[in-house]
Amino acid sequence: MARLQHKSLEAPDEVRSFPKGRVDIVQLDDVVIGRNVFEPGWRWSHDVAPVAGTKLCQYHHLGVILSGTLHVVLEDGTEMELGPEGAYEIPPGHDAWVIGDEPWVALDFAGMRAYGRPTMGTGDRVLKTILFTDIVDSTARATGLGDGGWRELLSRHNEAFRWEIDRFYGREINTTGDGFLVTFDGAERAVQCAAAMVAAAARLDVEIRAGVHTGEVELVPGNIRGVAVHMAARIMSAAGAGEVWVSSTTRELLDGSPLHFESRGRHALKGIDGERELFSLGAPLSERG
Question: What CATH number does the domain containing 98 carry?
């Protein structure tokens, strides 16, 4: 529940420093705000990439510029200069650097929960909970809406989902056109995020499905690899509209949690040896008779 509160950026909850820059972090319950202060000569690929461990910044940013100019280049070559007294949005997969002799100072309202922290290695294997989502019957929906309507719907879908990803401490790895690939350090947050995404989609008159699995993945710049990733994707494919399905591994990790699951039987998943028991997220205890 929202509440009246105030914090000063001059006394932040956390300061993350790196060469030629810093981020002052203020957290207001679920909302994390970062004040970026990047000095002349700062460049993401030189000064933050060694910390993040990725070739490009993989966070989505949304904010307001207080001073200075930042040049941003996306992975596809699209580029833009972001000047003072403007609002901005930067999608994942970008490099950026300060233009001129004035520091770039901005307030960022997205992607700040873990920005500037070590996140990805190259070739390392770590345990993660993986979430896949997609829109059910997206082709038919796109045809019915037309190109413009479909783009508008996807934009609203992505904005709502990125809010939930940030709220539950997830890390957006990739978008799949009409869905997301996200990792979490905790299984409960991953499932709660998936349920929140289902609810957010319903408010947009969209049905999605979600699959969650916990396992070891190989961290590579800007992506993850491994059987666990394929497992999560196959679980999502088995789910129905408005459903969140999880593997038995994730289900066992959540024993004792307030989340309720129902067995959906054993399934043969494409590319995965043997049959696996899958579970769907049920209604909370308070909503069950």
Answer: 2.60.120.10
Q: Two tokens at 53?
A: 């461990």
- Domain extent for 64: 14-108
Say if 9 falls within a structural domain: no
Confidence of residue 288 (pLDDT cuts 50, 70, 90): very low
- 């070891």: which residue's tokens? 216
Under a CB-based contact definition with an 8 Å cutoff, are residues 110 and 208 in contact? Answer: no
Whole-number Å distance between alpha carbons of 7 and 166: 20
Q: How confident is the model at residue 223 (pLDDT cuts 50, 70, 90)?
A: confident
d(CA 75, CA 32): 26
Q: Give a yes or no: residue 232 inside a domain.
A: yes
* Claim to verify: residue 198 and residue 134 sit in the same structural domain: yes
- For residue 225, CA distances in Å to 29, 37, 205, 275 come to 33, 34, 33, 22
Counted domains in the chain: 2
Q: Is the pLDDT of residue 188 over 60?
A: yes
pLDDT over 70 (residue 122): no
Q: How far apart are CA 97 and CA 264, in angstroms?
A: 50
pLDDT (tens digit per residue) in 62-118 = 999 999 999 999 988 999 999 998 999 998 889 999 999 999 999 999 888 878 876
